[in-house]
Structures are given as C-alpha cells and as structure tokens.
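TL;DR need structure tokens for one chain.
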Amino acid sequence: MQNFWKEIHNKFIKKFNIKKIPWEVDILYTNKTIKYLKYVKWFPWLKMVAIWNSISMNAWTIDSDIDLFIVTSPDSMWVNRILFTIFFQVLNVRKTKNKHAWRFCLSFFATTNWLNFKDWKIEDDIYLYFWIIYLKPILSYDNTYELFINQNKSWAIFDEYIKIINNNKNYIKYK
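>> reply
TL;DR here they are.
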C-alpha cells in the first residue's frame, strides 16, 4: 500500500493547484473529449477511454493538453493505437511538438489483462496515485472502469480515495 502522509498529499495538491471543483476550462476540455469520443466509440475491442493528468485533477494550465488513458481488449492494443492516432491526426487535434494546448495526447494505452499498476509503479509514487484516483472515465464498456479501480485499490487507498472514485461515476457505460 502507498505510504502517503496527509502532509505530502496536501503539498501535492498545493503544488499542482488541484481544485475540488473543476475550473470552467476543465469542463470545456472534458466536453471536447466527449464530443470526439462519440466518433471512436465503435472502434473494435475498445474497453475504456478516460481523461487523466491535469484536466482530470482540475488543475488546468494555459499549456494543458487532454491526456487520454485508453484500454482495449487483450491483443488489440496496436489496432486501437493506429485507429486513434489516425483519427486524431486527420482531424488535426492530436498533440504535436509545436502544438500542445487544447489538443489530445494519446499518452497511455493498456489492455484489460494489464490494469494493475502495482508491479511497475515507483514506491510511494504520489503522481501515479493521483492519476488513478482522479482518472475521469468518459467511455467504459463491460465495467472496465470498475475493473481498473478494483485492481489498483489494494495499493492506492487513501482517506480521500473512496469519495473521489464515487464522484467519477458520471460516464457513458456500455455493455
């Protein structure tokens, strides 16, 4: 289990200016994501798409992009990586070296059989902890978000964890 003192937790919140309530811009970024994901929800073997990092933590800055966490069925990650890359590139909304803010960063892909981050995390990695608890699911098929949370809660539990997770339940569920 992660060993975070309340003091370290609060320092992290202060350093990254994490708010309890989303900024107006965080909401705009989330709405933009929902708009574009309406077109990718049919991608084969897609299991979940979530926002994480600064936007999901309500810590928007002028340079913020939209970091996506994409989960697929086993053995289909590369098909989805290619489809997502082409889709966002063709629409000219993918993050590039020179164009960062307000664009999509396809920052992390995983499969449903590789959702537990315990085996590769850095000990007491507070940043990874915040990624997990503030993850904002937009699409979830077959309860993949719940699977992700259940696989990581044994090491990522903290006082605020359950409250934050319960607040993240407003996403589009598919069977």
